[in-house]
Specification:
This protein is an all-alpha fold and 554 residues long. The protein contains 29 helices and no strands.
Length: 554
């Protein structure tokens, strides 16, 4: 009988352990699907069954971090470490928190201790360390690659999660090629790994390569129809392109995710996407009234966008100002600052603040394509406000960060400097333009004009060689197409030699060149006729010395 009872107890313990493990595994799956509310419940259930389970504590802490409840996560890890200070998972969790707090050395020590305790062989612990580091802005992605890559060559290695973390580290370093390769290796281990395909789409999304990222997103949800993040990104992509498709994907997203206040916000934003601006404003205001200080700050932004579409800039600015007061500093998006810059520019006297917001947007954006777009928009805004110097600065930054800047980019940069009266800078840029694009006229034209602007009296003659070169190049490149540039250069040389050098013969030489290029040029013919007239002498009949008439000027 005692033996029978013992068997029942053993069975119950074994069954309980299995249920507990199932709760943790279930929670991890929910975490993977970004269903953090449900994951939290699963991990709490697991801890209720076994308060000393370190894996459950670690994953609950990670879930709390995703839910932005840092204080609860910290309390959890501190309590768990008090009971088991050498648990590798708990050390990693606390290291993650310390990274978030800017305590890099303390975090590094926690990670190294966790690695030492597991002799560097526990893939789960190393994956957790890698996840913590790539999730934090100042995390050392190179450390992740260094520690995790050797694992992939070990016998029996079959962890797609490791390759995903390595891919995330490469992506953090801006190495899209190696990131994609890593994600593809994760898919080789698990062909249904939707997260890997999703991350591949994200890389191409930042490059605005629709032909690649859109099919990759669709493939992610085909691989795993329960993968909520894929549906959300498809909804977000179509949000401003096709409201019906956006709503369809959002409904599919709702079917596989947790009910959250954030989803209520997205429902409201669909009204905006459908151009139902008054309804979007009314619904957002109702949520603000109902939830008070707990209302999602984005409701204020949504109202601001709606009023902006209704051409009510005053109310748009009012609600956007409220958004910037209520939103957490680390939750702002680059587009928030750009929208603020656009709104501010509609009110005279706010030009400098508008530009400052563009600077914040550019500093915050890490995606190359969108950063370039922001710089372009900032330059346009600076030009519109009449600040040509700032326009030149933005265009210069744009030229420097572009992977393959074009001749148009260089021309715009140089011309903006010319317009800003930064003539020496313009001259330098267009001199580079000549070297890079020797068969285009613009480098020669604007170096000449920049030098002319630096020497308006012509006294120094610094523009003369450039105008001679401009005329020469105009005739060499296309004497028909660039006839105007050649004639203009020759006229400058006529004026310089006649007025400054008092060299009528040289002035006549350049007048002849004008008439060779443009025989019907009336101005050249008239000036030549004046210069050819005999000089009149004035003075007494007794033959006193006279003075010559001043040479004619153009």
């Amino acid at each position: 009988m005692k033996k029978y009872i013992y068997s029942l107890v053993l069975a119950a313990v074994t069954c309980g352990g299995s249920l507990f493990a199932q709760s943790v595994d279930q929670g991890k799956k929910l975490f993977y699907y970004e269903r953090y509310k449900s994951a939290k419940e699963a991990f709490e259930k697991a801890l209720a069954s076994n308060p000393n389970d370190n894996k459950a504590s670690y994953w609950l802490g990670q879930t709390l971090l995703e839910l932005k409840d840092t204080a609860a996560a910290k309390a959890l890890f501190q309590k768990a470490l008090a009971s088991n200070g050498n648990a590798p998972e708990l050390l990693v969790g606390m290291g993650h928190l310390e990274l978030l707090e800017g305590k890099k050395e303390e975090a590094r020590q926690r990670f190294e201790t966790a690695i030492s305790l597991t002799k560097g062989k526990d893939i789960g612990v190393l994956n957790a360390i890698g996840h913590s580091i790539v999730e934090v802005k100042d995390g050392d992605a190179k450390f992740v690659i260094e520690k995790l890559t050797p694992l992939t060559t070990q016998k029996g290695f079959n962890s797609p999660e490791t390759w995903i973390v390595i891919g995330d580290a490469y992506r953090k370093l801006g190495d899209g090629g190696n990131a994609i390769t890593s994600y593809q290796r994760a898919l080789q281990i698990d062909p249904n790994q939707a997260a890997a395909k999703h991350r591949i789409s994200k890389i191409y999304m930042t490059q605005k390569n629709t032909e690649v990222f859109l099919p990759a997103l669709e493939e992610a949800i085909r691989l795993d129809p329960n993968y909520a993040p894929g549906y959300f990104d498809l909804y977000y992509y179509y949000f401003s392109r096709d409201v019906n498709k956006a709503k369809d994907y959002f409904d599919k997203f709702l079917a596989v995710t947790d009910a959250t206040p954030a989803n209520d916000y997205e429902r409201t934003s669909i009204l905006f996407a459908g151009r139902r601006y008054d309804e979007a404003i009314k619904t957002a205001q109702e949520y603000i009234s109902k939830l008070g200080d707990n209302a999602d700050p984005r409701y204020y932004k949504l109202i601001a966008y709606s009023y902006d579409e209704l051409k009510d800039s005053v109310n748009a600015k009012k609600y956007l100002d409220e958004y910037f007061v209520k939103q957490k500093p680390d939750a702002f998006m680059p587009k928030d600052y750009e929208f603020r810059a656009i709104l501010l520019s509609k009110f005279p006297g706010n030009e400098q603040e508008a530009i400052a917001n563009y600077d914040k947007a550019i500093a915050l954006d890490t995606a190359q394509a969108s950063r370039l777009e922001l710089m372009t928009n900032a330059a346009a805004q600076a030009k519109k406000s009449g600040n040509r110097e700032l326009e030149a600065e933005y265009l210069g930054r744009l030229y420097q960060v572009k992977k393959d800047p074009s001749n148009v980019d260089m021309y715009n940069w140089g011309f903006a400097n010319y317009q800003a009266k930064n003539y020496q800078r313009a001259d330098s840029i267009f001199t580079q333009y000549q070297a890079k694009y020797p068969n285009e006229i613009y480098g020669y034209l604007w170096t000449a004009r920049s030098k002319q602007a630096m020497d308006t009296s012509m006294a120094q003659g610094i523009a003369v060689p450039d105008y001679e070169k401009l005329a020469q190049k105009a005739m060499e490149l296309d004497p028909v197409k660039y006839k105007g540039q050649a004639v203009s250069a020759y006229f400058y040389l006529v004026q310089y030699h006649n007025d400054i050098k008092k060299d009528k013969a040289a002035a006549m030489k350049y007048l002849d060149k004008i008439l060779e290029v443009d025989p019907a040029n009336a101005d050249a013919a008239r000036i030549k006729e004046i210069l050819n007239k005999p000089q009149k002498k004035t003075g007494s009949s007794s033959g006193g010395s006279g003075t010559k008439a001043a040479p004619a000027k153009k």
